[in-house]
Amino acid sequence: MHFTKYSIRKRAYTQYLVLKMICPYCQNRITKVLDKRDSDFLKNKTRRRRECLKCKKRFTTYERVEGLELMVVKKDGRRELFDINKLLKGIQKACEKRPISGDEMNNMANTIELELRNYDSTEIKSTIIGNLVMDKLKSIDPVAYIRFASVYREFADVASFENEFKQLK
């Protein structure tokens, strides 16, 4: 087999691209991409189906574009990095034992993140995030909305809880 200078460069470049992902089964660094597509249920993520060239097992990876880091400004003035998993946990807690699927909760969290990334600033007040979650929950499930609001708004007594419930109607 005869290799030209171009084919050797191309082969080396291809191997370089493949070396970035490690096989979860045998820890081999040489894998190849079998299929690539945009994920339907995860916004702004690419799904890649890969095969290890050593053990021949297949696995899936998800890649997402790193955007600007969002900072959440808490009520007490502290700042922390936005974490979609923390947002999702709050939504899941409010929706616990309610007829809301995991996909609906994931879509809600992804939609809220996209809305936050469309803001002019990378510093977002936690009240904005809380209000976005409450708006989404209000349209999906009133019980989940009340659960989230009771924690988020820190109801001091039953009267404030009743006022929120009356506004829901």
Low-confidence stretches at least 5 residues in length (pLDDT < 50)? 1-19
The helix/strand order is HEEEEEHHEHHH
- Main sheet record: 3 strands, antiparallel
The pLDDT mean sits at 81
Furnish the topology, listing elements before pairings.
Blueprint (H helix, E strand, L loop, with lengths): L4 H14 L12 E8 L6 E8 L5 E7 L6 E3 L5 E3 L2 H11 L7 H16 L5 E3 H15 L1 H11 L5 H11 L1
Parallel strand pairs: 4-6
Antiparallel strand pairs: 1-2, 2-3, 4-5
Describe this structure in words.
The longest helix has 16 residues, at 102-117. 46% of the residues lie in helices and 19% in strands. Helix 2 crosses helix 3 (102-117) and helix 5 (142-152) runs antiparallel to helix 6. Strand 2 and strand 3 (58-64) form a beta hairpin. Residues 1-19 have low confidence and may be disordered. A three-stranded antiparallel beta sheet has the order 1-2-3, with no helix packed on it. Strands 5-4-6 form a three-stranded mixed beta sheet. The chain has two domains: 5-64; 71-168. The chain contains six helices and six strands, in the order αβββββααβααα. The protein is α+β, with helices and mostly antiparallel strands and 169 residues long.
